[in-house]
């Protein structure tokens, strides 16, 4: 049985226990922890390959597990992790909820570790997808919460997005502030 089949099997069991639906995101996160512990390989390249498989499904619960797995690898992040995360952002992040989950955990942690990478994210302000534009301020929510705000020019980000026409981008930078 491959990993995606295992995840789908476990999600089906979770659904059956919850009368046909997932009751809470926390239920899926709890399942994610159990699945992560069952992995025999915790090398970042292997785990990120599983994350990619999960993201390709475009299933809400699989994305929650994917973002959780990515965050669990935080001690192994390097500056090069930015390239992978940005690719996932452009390819798989489609709405506010997946933007917020990915950016306030895994991607936000990357900016705590490597705040100098923020200049590479400024171009997101002009991206065609609103979820990518929203990611620019939301990715700093975790660093700001952990008192790393002095490492970022949050007003520059606000200036880049102040005239954005999408309300969820506006709400994203309001949340950052």
The share of residues in extended strands comes to: under 5%
What class would the helix/strand composition place it in?
Answer: mainly alpha
The termini sit apart by: 46 Å
Order of helices and strands: HHHHHHHHHHH
Coarse shape:
globular
How would you sum up the major sheet? none
Question: Can you count the beta strands?
Answer: 0
| Arithmetic mean pLDDT | 92
**Low-confidence blocks of residues:** none
Rg (CA only): 17 Å
Break the fold down into its secondary structure elements and pairings.
Blueprint: H1 3-17, H2 25-38, H3 44-57, H4 60-72, H5 81-92, H6 96-113, H7 118-121, H8 130-138, H9 141-145, H10 154-161, H11 167-176
Describe what this molecule looks like in 3D:
- The chain contains eleven helices and no strands.
- It has 177 residues and is an all-alpha fold.
- Helix 2 (25-38) packs across helix 4.
């Amino acid at each position: 049985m491959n990993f995606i089949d295992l995840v789908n099997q476990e999600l089906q069991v979770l659904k059956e226990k919850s009368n046909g639906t997932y009751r809470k995101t926390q239920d899926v996160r709890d399942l994610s922890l159990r699945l992560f512990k069952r992995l025999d390989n915790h090398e970042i390249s292997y785990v990120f390959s599983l994350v990619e498989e999960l993201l390709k499904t475009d299933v809400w619960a699989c994305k929650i597990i994917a973002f959780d797995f990515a965050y669990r690898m935080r001690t192994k992040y390097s500056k090069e992790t930015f390239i992978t995360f940005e690719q996932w952002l452009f390819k798989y992040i489609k709405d506010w909820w997946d933007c917020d989950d990915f950016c306030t955990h895994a991607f936000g942690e990357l900016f705590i570790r490597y705040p100098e990478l923020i200049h590479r994210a400024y171009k997101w302000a002009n991206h065609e997808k609103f979820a990518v534009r929203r990611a620019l301020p939301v990715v700093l929510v975790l660093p700001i919460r952990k008192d790393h705000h002095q490492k970022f020019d949050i007003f520059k980000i606000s200036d880049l997005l102040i005239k954005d026409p999408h309300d969820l981008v506006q709400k994203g930078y309001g949340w950052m502030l």
